[in-house]
Amino acid sequence: MFVRSFAAAAAALLGLTFAVPQGASDGPASASSVVAAAAATTVPGVLSGAPAPDAAGPGGPRGRAARGRDPFRLGAPVAVAHRGASAYAPENTLEAVDYAERLGIDWVENDVQRTRDGELVVIHDDTLARTTDVETVFPGRSPWRVGDFTAAEIARLDAGSWFGAAYRGARVPTLDQYLRRIGFNQQRLLLEIKKPELYPGIEEDLLRVLDRAGWLDEHHVTHRLVVQSFSADSIRTVHRERPDLTTGFLGTPPVSQLRDYAAFTDRINPAYNTLSKEWVDAVHALRGPHGKRLDVNTWTVNNADLARRVRDQGVDGIISNTPDVVRDAVGGF
Ligand code: G3P
Ligand code: CA
Question: Is the pLDDT reported for residue 19 higher than 90?
Fold first, then answer.
């Protein structure tokens, strides 16, 4: 409330008009205020919270100290919210994105798959069973594969109750809804194409959605978007179609193969337990397709000791369910 009042007063003084979602604050919000914030910005007819207007540009009224700079280039590793702030809110929901924003986390990671009718949606598993109430709503549709359901069917599902009663009613967002929310929050996106082998042509679909949402302009491509996958083929395709995009390969290729990856990807993103300082140094010794040093973003690091360990191994980014803990441990963004 104080933040909203202060912001409104400041805006009045400056003659500005802008929106501050309810529940916005500098610290972690309670579960109920997160839900309230999502509800407060819901557009009628859209089930998964609000595709809020991308009203404020870089350096806008809600900007934090890091805005306008690329924290991947500033030394201390950047903390990336894995599936949103997924230790605190249901993964891959708008609520998890908003939670990360409240923690002051710029970068969020997500997982993208495709529905039966061709809509891109944000969800990790290739079935809906673990993170929604699909078994109750559609009991006869085992094994509840994402690709067997339409977007309208998925929009009916509760993707929050499994995590906690306070999140009842959270939805599986479409990628379009997700991009709008990230845009509104002025966040940046590490977008994972999940299991592309299940969705032939998903790379082209993805680029179409990103383009339509305004995420392939120079600003977004330069500062706000990285596309990654466990599939080298998928990343090669993205790089071929849009050579200007920053890409990441998920995995730990042997040093002898790193040069091949450097032809099409800018980042190599390994599991933390596969890392060594020597391997990170070997990645850093190479330049990627944009002529810059290859970066390393590791996952999934959820405590301070581990965060300091991978920082000391030289990583550039740390993907975490508790990105606030990681950021505070390593002194990054
Ligand atoms: O971003 C890295 C990480 O998300 C890869 O693993 O299974 O959580 O998608 P997963
Ligand atoms: Ca992921």
Answer: no
Which residue's alpha carbon is at the smallest distance from atom 3 of ligand 1?
Answer: 299
Element (H, E) at 250: strand 246-250
What residue's CA is closest to ligand 1, atom 2?
299
pLDDT, tens digit (0-9, with 9 covering 90-100), for 168-199: 999 999 999 999 999 999 999 999 999 999 99
Confidence of residue 33 (pLDDT cuts 50, 70, 90): very low
Distance (Å) from CA 167 to ligand 1 centroid: 23
Q: Quote the domain boundaries for residue 49.
A: 4-330
Judge if the beta carbon of residue 249 lies within 6 A of ligand 1: no
Distance from the CA of 311 to the center of ligand 1, in angstroms? 19
Give the closest residue to 94 by CA, choosing from 28, 150, 159, 19: 159
Residue 219 appears among annotated catalytic residues: no
Q: In total, how many domains does the chain have?
A: 1
Q: Which of 36, 39, 53, 52 is nearest to 1 (CA)?
A: 36
Active site residue 290: no
Asked if 178 and 94 touch (Cβ cutoff 8 Å), the reply is yes
Distance 18 CA to ligand 1 centre (A): 35
> Does the beta carbon of 299 lie inside 6 Å of ligand 1?
yes
CATH number at residue 304: 3.20.20.190
Q: Which ligand is closest in space to the CA of residue 112? A: 2
How does residue 115 score in pLDDT terms, banded at 50, 70 and 90?
very high
Average pLDDT over residues 149-174: 98
Q: How many angstroms separate the CA atoms of 213 and 208, rounded? A: 9
Q: Which pLDDT tens digit goes with each residue over 63-87?
A: 344 444 444 445 799 999 999 999 9
Nearest CA to ligand 1 atom 4: 82
Query: DSSP states of 293-304 as a string?
Result: BPEEEEB---SH
Q: Quick one: pLDDT at residue 15?
A: 32
